[in-house]
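User: I'll paste a sequence; please echo it back and then give the predicted structure.

Assistant: Echoing your sequence first, then the prediction.
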Amino acid sequence: MVDIDFQAIRKGLSELPRADNHAPDQTVNPEEVYAVQGHRAALDPDRALVVANRGMGKSFWTHALSQDPIRQSVSQQFRQPDLKSAAVSIGFNASERADSVAPSPDTIRRVYQDRDGRSPESIWNAVIARAAGSNLPVPIPQGFSPLVQWVDEDPERYASAMTEADNRLATAGRRLLIVFDALDRLGEDWETTRALTRALLRRALAARSYRTIRIKLFMRLDQFEDSSLFDFPDASKIRNTRVDLEWRTEDLYGLLFSRLERLSSARESFRQLQDSLRFRQSAFPQVSQAQDSQKLTVDALAGEFMGASKKRGRVFTWLPTHLADARGQTSPRTFLTVWREAAHHGTAPLAHAVDHLGIMEGVRKASEDRFTELAEDYKWIRRALEPLKGQMVPMERETLEAIWRERQVAERVVNESRQKGWLAPVQLGVAEMSPERALVTALETIGVLEIRRNGKINVPDIFRVEAGIKRKGGVRPPRRGSPPDSQS
């Protein structure tokens, strides 16, 4: 076997980008694009609704689709000619920048508040008209508020103009895809956000009558679980054909390997490693499947076990298991964080790039980052989990609800949301549930709590560690200011 320079691979792992969230209007680096085959349906222009949690790729694909070179490349990889021929406009992404198509959140809210009885669908019709642009047979007002009024005052004129735009696009052999992201930023309360989102869903359904114009929405999990959003005729045509943006274990490892192949510091050594493993695979036909191939690579990078033997688990399966939320999903950003931090931890092993102690520390750092990341979208998470610090999970549901009730957690969440202008869990507005039961449902929806078959509540490691919640046999929460232990 060729001597592999694991130090070079370790250096490459340490250089993995931090992969910050994609901000509105941020340009996507082509080197960041990793085409997961399971995401093919999410990019299909005819699939209107894509649902995912924070960090799973909603904003990434929104902006990647809007960039011609990346869209062309992805359309070839996914063999989607309809995507290749499409012009893509962003209809909303919560950007404050002035845009020829997408209005800012403040503009949306002002027009909604001043609509004088007009349907909120007029707002989205105005956005669609902007996106149609030069394909329209008539000029349209430049200002957004005048355009909404123009759309609303003569629906027949609007319908005729859009039909002609659709015909022109069809004649030219082109399609128009209008993409919407950050729908939770449409309003400062659930009533406004719900009304605007429902109107947009209705327009997405209506757009199916066009030959060339389609609407695609990237939506948060908690919004999707709000059944009142889909309280309109034929809503099931969108709801039941949604695409869940997910990452399988093989996708995560494939992403990691593709990053190493692109880093100049690690590329040559990593390729040599893979070549040597291919030789081994040819001698052992039973490991010829793609995932088994990945397992051999991971074993070479980090060792096979999370310790001296299989008792503590195998790295290949242990890692995604301990990074997954209660829905079984792992953020790709979180996964890469573990490997980057593992390469910075401790002394480099002799025969691998990282070891299980580094991976354990990487999980702690990933837990911190993932918790912070999710709390940016759901401001109430910290308030809900703070009373559980030092508690042991799994715990009885009644115990959890009693802790929250004693500390008036639900009431504090509602009050703070009103004072600070962020959205409380949508479930807290459901009259049929107690506030504590609503909090359980909200956390279960976004994958922070797991309700086991025996009814007990568990918190996955990826959130439990940073929240300081205990679990026998799990990854130990960090001791602030002191070196971490490897296992509890």
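The chain has three domains: 37-244, 249-374, 378-467. Residues 344 and 388 are 31 Å apart (CA to CA).
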